[in-house]
Structures are given as C-alpha cells and as structure tokens.
Specification:
Blueprint lengths: L1 H33 L2 H10 L2 E6 L6 E2 L5 E13 L4 H26 L4 H13 L5 E8 H7 L9 H4 L1 E10 L7 H4 L2 E5 L5 E5 L1 H5 L1 H5 L3 E7 L5 E9 L6 E4 L3 H18 L3 E8 L5 E9 L5 E2 L16 H12 L6 E3 L5 E4 L2 E4 L8 E3 H6 L3 H12 L3 H10 L17 E2 L8 H8 L5 E2 L2 H12 L4 E2 L4 E6 L2 E5 L4 E3 L5 H16 L4 H4 L7 E8 L12 E9 L6 E8 L9 H21 L17 E5 H11 L3 E3 L6 E6 L4 E5 L15 H10 L3 E5 L4 E5 L11 E6 L5
Parallel strand pairs: 2-10, 28-30, 31-33
Antiparallel strand pairs: 1-8, 2-3, 3-4, 3-5, 6-7, 8-9, 10-21, 11-12, 11-26, 12-13, 14-17, 15-16, 18-19, 20-23, 21-22, 24-25, 25-26, 27-29, 29-30, 32-33
Length: 714
C-alpha cells in the first residue's frame, strides 16, 4: 500500500510539473505573439530582400506639328523613415530643431491641415519609430519642387529620413480631340490579383515602343511588409520612345467641333468624321462621338473602324466595276421607271425618291442615287458571273481589314456571291449598299484613290518614332494599288461625283460654295444587333474630296440617327458637316487664310432649346409663330422644331438630383442650379452643351457644377 502511495505521489508531481511547464510555454507564446509580435515581425522582414522592377517613363504621343496629344507626367509619393540615423542622432536634435518650421511649411503650402496637427502627427510617428510613414501621395512636379525647399526636406535623405518614390500618370492635354484614336494606357488589378494593362488606340498599337525598358532596384522589407529601396542598388529604367502622328490639332478641332454640333442638334446616336491627305494617305483628323447615358457626347469608341452596311456610298464601287467591265459611256440611258421601284433580276428594288424621268443616264443614276439604276447596271453586267463583281470589290480592298496602323481593326463582311447560294440576288443587293459591311475608313480610302487619280494609298497615323529627339524610324506613304482602274474610269467617276454636288442629292447643301467639291451621299436603313428596320434608325453618310479641280483632302462623315428622326438622310446630316470642315480647311490650308472669315449660314429651321415656359410662349405668341403645347402649367419646358412648327414639351427639374440644364441659356441654368444651392463654374458662352457633375448624382450642396457652353468648342 505504501508503495502504491509513493508511486501515485510521483505521478501527481510529474503531472503538476507538466501542467506548470505547459502553462509557462503557453504564456510565453502569448506574450511573444501579443506583446513582442511586431518587433519579431520587423526583425523577420528586415532579413528579406528582393529585386523589384521599376517602370520606365512612357513615351509621348505628338501631333504632326509637335503638340502633345498624350504624355506621362511624374507624380511623387513622399515617405519618412523615422529611424534614419540623421533624425535619431544626438537624441533627435535635428528632428526637434526642424519640426516646427517643417509643419508650418506643410500647412501653409498644401492648406489641408493646421500646422499644429501636422506637428502632432509627425511627433507621434517619430515616437512610434515608423519606418515608412506616408506624408504625401501623388504630388505633381511643381508641388514636389516646392517641397524640396522645405525645412528638413532640403537636408537630404540621410539627414531627414525622407524617401521619395516617383510614379507617373497619363495626361491628354487636348481632352476630347482624337481621344479614342490616341487611346488610353492604364493598369488595373484583375480578379486574380495580378496587375494588367488596358490599352486602346495608338497606346495599344505601339505599346511596346511607348513602354520602354524597365529598370531594377533592391528593396528591403520592414515591419508590415513595406518595401524600402536600398541605396546604391538600382538600375535606372530607359524611357519609352515617342510617337509623332500625322494628326493636325487644328484640323482635328475643326472636324470634332463640326461633328459635335450636328450630333447635338440632331440628337444622333453616334458619328465619325475622318480627314485624309489625298496624295499621302495621312490621316489628319479623326473624330468619334457617341452618346452617353446623360445625353452628352464623348469619344467612347472608334466608330471610324466599325463595319456597317454603307448604303449608297458603295455605289462608287459599282460604278467603277461596271465602267471597267463594259466600257460604257456615262451618257448611256438606264430605264428606272416613274414608280420609285422596279424588279431587277430576282428582287424588287426601291428608290428613296421617285425619279423625275423614266430614263436616266448612268451619271444621273449616280448623282441622284438611284438604287434601281445602279442595281440594273450591276445586274446587266454581272448577272452571268457574280463572282466577277466580287473580284472588283476585292481589288478596291473592300473585303479586307483596313491596313491602318491600329490594333483590333474589324474585318469587313460580305454576303455569298455563289450562284447556288443566292449569288445574283446578293450581288444586286450589294450594288446599292446592303449585304456588305465595311468601315468608314475603308470607304474613304476608295474615294481618296479616285481623288488621287486611281492610286490607292495606305491610310496611316504615325509619321515617326523618336527617342530623346533622335529619329528611330520614319514612315513614308505606301501605295496599296497603283491603278485601281483605268484613267478613263477615274475621269468618269470624278465627273459623276461632281454631279452629285452640282445637280444631285447634295446640290442644296453645297450651292453657292466658292470652291468645287466632289462626293457622294449615302443613307442606309439600319438593321443590326438589337436594332430592327421597324425602329427607324438610319446611317447618314457623305464622302468626297476638295477642291475637286485639285484634290488636297478627302473626308467622310457618317452619323447614326436616333430612332424615327425627322432628319436622317446623308444630305441632311452628314453633308453639312463635310461642308463646314471643307470650308474651314480650304480657307486655312489651301487659300492660307483665317478660317473664321468663312462664316457658314446656319439652318434656322432647326432648333432645340430649354428654358422658362412663360418666356417661350410669350416670344412665340409675339412673333405669331405656330406651336404645339403640352406643358400645361409647368415652369420649365423644351422647345424644338418639327415640320416648321414649334413643339413645347415638359422639362422636369428634380429637387433630389443635380438638375439637367443641358440646352438652357446661361441665365436659366444659373437660376436653377444656384436656387438649389450649387456652386457653378462656366466655360464659354451661349447655351449649355454639357455639364459636370452630371445629372443624376445625389445632391451635395458643396458640389461645383461645371457648365460647358456651345461656343466653348469653336
């Protein structure tokens, strides 16, 4: 029994010892984790080093006249290492001597905190021995330059502990101008946590050249996993190359402004306008405007490269093919009838307007854009061999992606020309612009070839590649096809395009112009994607060149109308934009004089305004101008033209949102916004084109609303 007690005593004692030892180990583990955790983590981190890449400065994209279109500006992140020897030596004497003046300098320059608050935060970080204290983020160069002269900062890194990290941000000084063609370059964090690039336009096409050669640096990890650069272990990056484009800023401004005004007045969905130098194929201007959710317009897509059914602008290809195949005279008569429609081969073809004569010459068929006439020409010439017509379209590069120096260029589509697969029917349909999808840039390239006496030039956007002002690569004009057709056919095509302007579908637009223009209107009834024919959406086009007697520039304008728009023909939407662009460019670059002297007559029958209902009714009644009114007693309304008749509709002004004042005069816009407590900034004069903060944002009384007025873009 005694032996048993002795054994049990020893067991209990051992068990108690194990419990005490376990408690000691557990307590020590808790102490290390909770009390000394940060210290040991920092010790661990300080033992880790690695090589990091340093991004190179991205190259700049210039216009042909050396104006910056897209450039990278440096930004600076400022950190402080409060364990730096220079701050800690002599019991922190240098820190204590400079902290007051440093805090005052920060407060007086940046005006974001009181000097006392700066001082308090800096002293706390010093006390906590922070190794990577963030002082300022993304300083611009001018601010960083001023910061370097502050007390403490001017002492240098070793004495001040100040660490500077340089980054960059992409800036487009001209904003909207050619925004989508120049493109963007930005990084984002993907769903897998990796950093990826999102580039479009020239920024994407020439990304490898613009990016440059990355550098390297050695970094040491401190507490919290923060990486601190190690002095003396850095390979500097090599900046990217610069791109000098063919774009002209003045031409771009003229083209964008003309397109935007038409888009605003017609409330169209999207539009594009391109200007090309005839002899070289250089793209001098390219504007792309699409409507956003707020009703404004922005360069949200490159519509110049979208492939769509072109409508009647394809009739130039039909004319060229027919003339080349049968050597017909432009004066040969084609029966088109007086009913506006006729069966051509296997299908019924309809004209937009009835012909004034039952028989038209080939030139008149082209000038008056007769679907019946042009499809009969194609049928009579190619019904026995539709593939021959397709071979001509291939010769005109209409079945190949545009060779322009951009990425993601869409490939055109074309219906089958096989005889056993509806080839004859499809050939007739294609002859007047349906059953084929091409981009506006491809259409312009074809018309430019006629302006250039049959020589088709490759359209291009980049002139040179440079690095540090030293030429790296030069791009010259490239001929795609020396002769797309015979000289006689070129002459006939030019004559036909001039007839469009002097006697055909564009006569009313260009009448009285003091220099000759040649071109072609086009109107396509749209049915693609979610849009059906019943929606009443049209694509209006005008493409041509000027001056017709000595072509310098070619231009295409394509506008997608809103559903059931009153104005939707090429001669109504696109041709006026072409006229404004041609008139100003002719004055500036052909006659070499001030384009502001060329004042275009505005169509006063088209208007769209927003304002105070009582004022509208008072003016209309005084002028005895007929109008329809559905506003009842509402204070604000919209007035627009419809069939030479004014229509008043209610414009709701919401009190719980930023009001939409687009279309108002400045007086009314200020009245609405300031009565709701907003600050207002104004750019330009006239009526409101667009506004920022956009309508639909919840009210914040400290918000400043920026109004862009219509003469801001002129």
């Amino acid at each position: 029994m005694k032996v048993k007690r002795d054994i049990l005593w020893r067991v209990y004692l051992s068990f108690l010892g194990i419990v005490l030892l376990s408690s000691l180990v557990l307590g020590r583990a808790i102490y290390i984790q909770q009390v000394q955790g940060n210290y040991w983590k920092s010790m661990s981190d300080s033992l880790h080093q690695r090589i990091e890449e340093i991004d190179a400065g991205r190259g700049t994209i210039y216009s042909e006249d050396r104006q910056m279109l897209s450039t990278s500006l440096p930004t600076f992140d400022i950190y402080i290492d409060f364990l730096a020897d220079g701050l800690r030596e002599k019991n922190g004497k240098r820190f204590k001597e400079n902290i007051d003046s440093f805090a005052v300098s920060l407060s007086s320059y940046f005006k974001d905190k009181d000097a006392s608050l700066y001082k308090k935060e800096l002293k706390k970080a010093y006390k906590n021995k922070e190794r990577y204290y963030l002082l300022k983020k993304k300083l611009e160069y001018q601010d960083y330059k001023a910061f370097r002269d502050f007390p403490l900062a001017k002492l240098g890194r070793n004495k001040s502990g100040i660490i500077v990290e340089e980054n960059s941000k992409r800036l487009m000084p001209f904003g909207l101008l050619a925004n989508r063609t120049i493109g963007l370059s930005r990084e984002y964090i993907a769903s897998n946590g990796k950093v990826k690039k999102q580039n479009v336009g020239l920024e994407k096409s020439f990304d490898s050249l613009l990016t440059g050669q990355k550098g390297q640096r050695l970094v040491r990890f401190i507490a919290g996993g923060v990486a601190v650069p190690v002095d003396g272990y850095q390979i500097e990056p090599e900046s990217g190359k610069d791109i000098i484009t063919t774009l002209d800023v003045n031409m771009q401004d003229i083209t964008s402004s003309a397109l935007l005004k038409m888009m605003q007045s017609s409330e169209s969905e999207y539009g594009t306008a391109i200007v090309m130098e005839v002899k070289t194929g250089k793209i001098k201007a390219i504007a792309n405007l699409g409507k956003n959710k707020e009703g404004g317009y922005w360069e949200n897509d490159n519509y110049a490269l979208h492939v769509t059914e072109p409508g009647s602008t394809i009739k130039l290809a039909t004319l060229l093919a027919v003339l080349e195949e049968k050597k017909l005279s432009l004066n040969e008569l084609i029966e088109v009838g007086n009913h506006g429609s006729m069966v051509v081969g296997p299908r019924n073809v309809t004209d937009a307007e009835r012909s004034p004569k039952s028989n038209l010459t080939i030139k008149e068929c082209f000038a008056h854009s007769s679907n019946v006439g042009m499809s009969k020409l194609a049928y009579n010439t190619f019904a026995s061999n539709p593939q021959k017509f397709k071979s001509y379209l291939h010769n005109y590069n209409l079945d190949l992606p545009s060779p322009v120096d951009l990425s993601d260029v869409a490939k055109p589509t074309m219906t089958s020309f096989e005889k056993n697969n509806g080839g004859i029917m499809n050939m007739v349909t294609v002859s007047f612009g349906y059953g084929i999808q091409v981009s506006p840039l491809q259409t312009l390239t074809l018309y430019n070839a006629i302006a250039n006496d049959g020589k088709m030039m490759k359209p291009y956007l980049v002139n040179k590649i440079e690095r540090g002002g030293i030429l790296q690569q030069n791009f010259s004009p490239i001929i795609l096809n020396e002769n797309i057709c015979s000289d006689a056919t070129v002459k006939a095509a030019k004559e036909s395009m001039e007839a469009v302007v002097t006697e055909g579908t564009a006569k009313n637009v260009f009448e009285g112009l003091h220099f000759p223009v040649a071109g072609k209107t086009g109107t396509a009834h749209v049915a693609d994607g979610k849009i059906k024919y019943k929606d009443g959406v049209y694509q209006a086009s005008f493409v041509g060149y000027f001056p017709a007697n000595d072509p310098q520039y070619s231009c295409i304008v394509v506008i997608r109308s809103k559903p059931h728009a009153a104005l939707h023909y090429g001669g109504q939407l696109a041709a006026p934009v072409f006229k404004e662009v041609a008139t100003k460019l002719y004055a500036m670059y052909v006659e070499k004089r001030d384009a502001s002297l060329m004042v275009l007559k505005k169509d006063s029958s088209i208007f769209n305004y927003t304002g105070f209902t009582y004022d509208f009714k008072n003016v209309l009644s005084s002028l005895k101008f007929p109008f329809s009114d559905s506003t009842q007693r509402m204070h604000w309304s919209n007035i627009s033209s419809k069939n030479n008749h004014a229509v008043l509709k209610v414009r709701n002004i919401e009190n719980d949102e930023v009001p939409n004042v687009k279309g108002m005069g400045l007086k009314d816009a200020l009245y609405v916004l300031e009565n709701q407590g907003f600050n207002v900034a104004i750019q330009g004069k006239g009526k409101v084109l667009t506004q920022f903060v956009k309508n639909g944002v919840e009210i914040n009384k400290s918000t400043t609303v920026v109004l862009i007025l219509d003469e801001f873009i002129n």
